[in-house]
Design brief:
- The structure holds two protein chains of two kinds.
- Chain A has a domain of 88 residues: Tetratricopeptide repeat domain (Serine Threonine Protein Phosphatase 5, Tetratricopeptide repeat, Alpha Horseshoe).
- Chain A is built from 18 helices and no strands.
- In chain A, helix 10 runs antiparallel to helix 11 and helix 11 runs parallel beside helix 13.
- The termini of chain A are far apart.
- Chain B is globular and about 70 Å long.
- In chain B, a hairpin with a 5-residue loop joins strand 18 and strand 19.
- In chain B, the strands form ten sheets. A four-stranded antiparallel sheet of chain B has the order 1-30-29-28, with no helix packed on it. Chain B has a four-stranded antiparallel sheet with strand order 2-3-4-5.
- By secondary structure, chain B is mainly beta.
- Classes of the chains: A mainly alpha, B mainly beta.
- The interface between A and B is medium-sized, with 33 and 34 residues.
């Protein structure tokens, strides 16, 4: 029996156990249903509501989650602990829907009820991070970790935050801790690989990224990002041919991935397979016309090939998008 | 010689222990040498961006005695900073005994009160005396060397003041190969005291200098030398007009080996520019096709300093460009077809970079024949630490040793403790100031005294210094290409009138020869393409090669 599930009956314990197992296997929709049963029965361990929240990150049916919450709230009798879980879930779903004020209000309420609720600290960290209050976010992650140092997810999220603000050694340390706690944490290996790449350690980066890919494949989670991260490293190292199978699988897993098309186009372009590269880059643009990178790659390729008019036009679009993104970034940082 | 790998050589190398570092020890002798100068950056709570960007240093043999003198650019008065006495640039005459004497007032080059940024030395009127251009805001100045130890301010007559512009790096070159030096001047942005904006946090200690993205750009200016003491602004006709420019560093060099000088401009946060000279008075912007405009990941990095040299000795000039922290200082390898490959990562320069680079130079520290790298660093924000805990305003230098196999090794900690001292460094000039074959490095520091690095160890290799004198070509031979052959050692360089950041260095070409005791042949390709040959040049000497006095080379 899982620790913390004892407050509810045996069925609840089974739901909790099964829900977690489904989550780890990447069966998020099924995990969501099972974890709802687990949480609704009043599981004492806060991490099940936390896992439930994470299923929404994957399935993205946030609005549906809110409606379900509303229905639950309207029920008169609720098991002990459920009220707090529901408020936390509300905070999470509002955060994902971009309503940071509502999310923060729910989480503040949660913390007023129980200042030791690490999930609320973590989620407040997300809120701060999204609003670019990086230092405050770090503080909140640390508060969450002080209460729940055994939670690999929180270490991982702190590592992501550090990575996003170029605090690479700290990111590496935090992701290392996450992996210590959960050696099968595929996303953490990918982040670890990206950290090593930033540190100029391509060998170690490749090792971690490869492990991230292997774990993703193992759980049959059709997430193209580990593949793309590894392929990008290989491309930056000049191993264009080696990157192709990874990119092929990324496209198989997500045929609508603009980034996968972009990287495939870029690799093929470096291999002088320009006609094929062009097809992939054009598709990348069709899938996401706000991503500047395919404009640059295709524009430069066309210029070199003598198609100056379209090449220049694509580059002008690239420059406009690049400037816009740079301005947004500076506005957020308000400093270099 | 580390790895000029003939098979016979490899067998020998297996038995001989290779050096682990360049075997140099640099000490800062600026104070001992009499360089009594302190840059005034006018730092204020108003955070005028100009406060943190300067200033430059460069060499100029103003008295023609064969020993390079030093010119240090000074800041200036601002609306928030009124110095007790007017600030002046400083010209230091080389006393030929390791010391310098300040001769600013006698030379008349102290400036006009503008906020100084950079300098460029070149004999624009071909009279045999090197002239001086000093950039700054709100105007730049041209000083004509009268040949008697004094200079005349000829800015107005020459028409190169750039009134109202925030001018940064400048360089002399003969873009139309008419034998007269023309002038390229970069502008950082469209800016004025009145237009300064507020950035950073609300609290005074969180206020920062603004990111250049907040300011409109400004085009560089190309001034063609009319030959009568005046210049004509030909920026637009030449195809160089770029109102989005945020130019800080430039490299004027021939990147496609056609004997016509091309232009690389490092822009801060906007794409770098590479213009190829099309031999008809115009340039073609090939930045994107060449792969140097943006990074491969589509970023326009904060370009600061730049230098060009043939680091892999394939006969084609490569590029090194410095950027801000958390970006990379990039090495671009010339593909010999007007494109470049970003070789930063393969060269071992791709690790996490916490330093913001400004002045940079390729230089052969140990005369082994492979150009090494030196960068002067220092952040832009004086309170960067409160935003990025790992980054500091004052930073150490970086010295990278060329291993001769396409890779560099960071040897900063092995070239003397001085290089690791944190400073807010900006300008960087390299020259053999005492003509002893060991290269000196001069660094200008924002808000501080300069550094003069001298190698106090004996050089363990041979060298040769070649001073070119043009006759039909411009007198400084700027734009000439040299290729030397010493046994199996072949190397190429060019006389460059602009590189690094805010300053120019030794116009003489320095070649490390390893253990070789002479140069078998030195071929000079003068601007425009005429070739001449010299044979049998002894190592350990400075040779003057005058246009028209060499032999005709063999037909290729």
């Amino acid at each position: 029996m899982l620790a913390g599930a004892s407050a509810a009956g045996p069925q609840s314990a089974r739901d909790c156990e099964q829900g977690e197992a489904l989550f780890r296997r990447g069966a998020y929709q099924e995990a969501q249903e099972t974890l709802w049963s687990c949480v609704a029965s009043g599981a004492a361990d806060k991490r099940f509501a936390h896992l439930l929240a994470q299923t929404y990150r994957e399935t993205k049916n946030f609005q549906e989650g809110i409606q379900r919450l509303d229905r639950m709230v309207s029920q008169t009798a609720k098991p002990a602990g459920l009220a707090q879980d529901l408020i936390f879930l509300r905070g999470y779903l509002y955060y994902r829907l971009g309503d940071f004020a509502a999310s923060t209000a729910a989480l503040t309420y949660t913390l007023e009820a129980d200042s030791r609720d690490w999930r609320a600290h973590e989620l407040l960290a997300f809120n701060f991070s999204t609003r670019n209050l990086r230092e405050e976010a770090v503080e909140k992650f640390r508060a969450a970790l002080a209460l729940a140092p055994e939670q690999p997810e929180v270490h991982y999220q702190l590592a992501r935050l550090y990575y996003s603000v170029f605090r690479i050694p700290e990111s590496l340390a935090a992701v290392g801790k996450a992996l210590e706690l959960e050696p099968g944490y595929g996303e953490a290996y990918t982040l670890q690989g990206l950290c090593h790449e930033q540190l100029g350690e391509p060998g170690r980066a490749a090792e971690s990224l490869e492990r991230g890919v292997a774990l993703t494949r193992q759980i049959r989670r059709r997430d193209e990002w580990p593949l793309l991260s590894y392929a990008a490293l290989l491309i930056r190292q000049g191993s264009f041919q080696t990157s192709l199978p990874l990119l092929g699988q990324a496209l198989e897993w997500n045929p609508q991935s603009a980034r996968a098309h972009y990287w495939m186009g870029r690799a093929l372009c470096r291999l002088n397979r320009n006609d094929e590269a062009r097809t992939y880059l054009e598709r990348a643009l069709a899938l996401d016309d706000r991503d500047p990178l395919p404009y640059l790659e295709l524009g430069a390729m066309l210029l070199k090939g003598g198609e100056r008019v379209r090449g220049q036009s694509l580059l002008a679009r690239f420059e406009a998008l690049r400037k816009q993104r740079a301005a947004e970034r500076v506005e957020l940082f308000d400093a270099r | 010689m580390r790895a000029s790998a003939s098979l016979a050589g490899l067998a020998l190398l297996a038995a001989v222990e290779l050096p682990r570092n360049p075997g140099v020890e640099y000490v800062d002798q600026a104070a001992a040498a009499g360089l009594a100068f302190r840059h005034q950056n006018a730092a204020s709570s108003s955070k005028y961006i100009i406060e943190t960007m300067g200033s430059g240093v460069g060499t100029i043999d103003f008295d023609g005695d064969g020993y390079l003198d030093l010119f240090l650019v000074q800041g200036g008065e601002t609306p928030a900073f009124r110095p007790a006495a007017r600030l002046k640039h400083a010209l230091f005459r080389n006393n030929r005994d390791g010391t310098f004497a300040e001769v600013t007032d006698r030379a008349g080059v102290g400036g006009d009160g503008s906020f100084g940024m950079g300098m460029a030395a070149g004999d624009y009127d071909g009279d045999g005396f090197t002239d001086l251009y000093v950039t700054g805001y709100p105007r730049s100045m041209l000083y004509r060397n009268a040949g008697n130890g004094a200079f005349q301010d000829v800015t107005g007559r020459a028409g190169v003041a750039g009134e109202g512009a925030f001018s940064t790096s400048a360089g002399w070159f003969d873009f139309d190969n008419d034998g007269r030096l023309d002038l390229l001047v970069l502008r950082y942005m469209s800016w004025s005291w009145e237009s300064e904006i507020r950035c950073g946090g609300e609290q005074p200690e969180r206020r920062t200098y603004c990111d250049p993205i907040h300011y409109p750009g400004a085009s560089p200016a190309l001034y063609r030398n009319n030959g009568d003491g005046a210049f004509t602004d030909v920026t637009r006709q030449a195809g160089l007009w770029n109102p989005d420019g945020k130019g800080l560093g430039l490299a004027l060099a021939d990147f496609n080996n056609d004997s016509w000088t091309d232009i690389f401009i490092a822009n801060d946060g906007t794409p770098s520019k590479l213009y190829f000279n099309r031999k008809n008075g115009t340039f073609e912007d090939r930045s994107i096709e060449a792969g140097v405009g943006y990074t491969e990941d589509g970023a326009a990095e904060a370009g600061m300093g730049v230098d060009a040299a043939d680091y892999d000795r394939d006969g084609w000039l490569d590029l090194f460009v410095t950027h801000l922290d958390h970006q990379l200082h990039r090495l671009f390898r010339n593909n010999r077809n007007e494109t470049f490959q970003d070789a930063t990562v393969p060269a071992g320069l791709g690790g996490l970079n916490l330093l913001s680079g400004f002045g940079c130079k390729f230089l052969d520290l140990d005369a082994d024949g492979w150009p090494d790298l030196f960068s002067a660093n220092g952040h832009v924000l004086d309170n960067i630490h409160s935003y990025r805990s790992q980054v500091r305003y004052a930073e150490p230098k970086r010295v990278y040793w060329n291993l001769g196999n396409g890779k560099f090794r960071d040897v900063t900690s092995q070239v003397g403790a001085a290089a690791s001292e944190p400073r807010v460094s900006r300008g960087l000039a390299v020259a053999d100031l005492d003509n002893d074959g060991r290269l000196e490095i001069v660094v200008s520091n924002n808000g501080g005294p300069p550094e003069l690095y001298r190698n106090r160890r004996p050089l363990r290799n041979q060298y040769v210094i070649l001073k070119l004198v043009g006759r039909k070509a411009n007198r400084d031979a700027i734009g000439a290409r040299l290729t030397i052959q010493a046994g199996d050692h072949r190397a190429t360089d060019q006389v460059k009138g602009g590189a690094s950041y805010l300053g120019t260095g030794d116009l003489r070409a320095y070649f490390g020869l390893g253990s070789r005791r002479s140069v078998d042949r030195a071929e000079v390709t003068w601007p425009g393409g005429r070739r001449e040959l010299w044979r049998g040049l002894a190592a350990g000497k400075i040779h003057t090669l005058i246009e028209g006095q060499g032999r005709a080379p063999e037909t290729p």
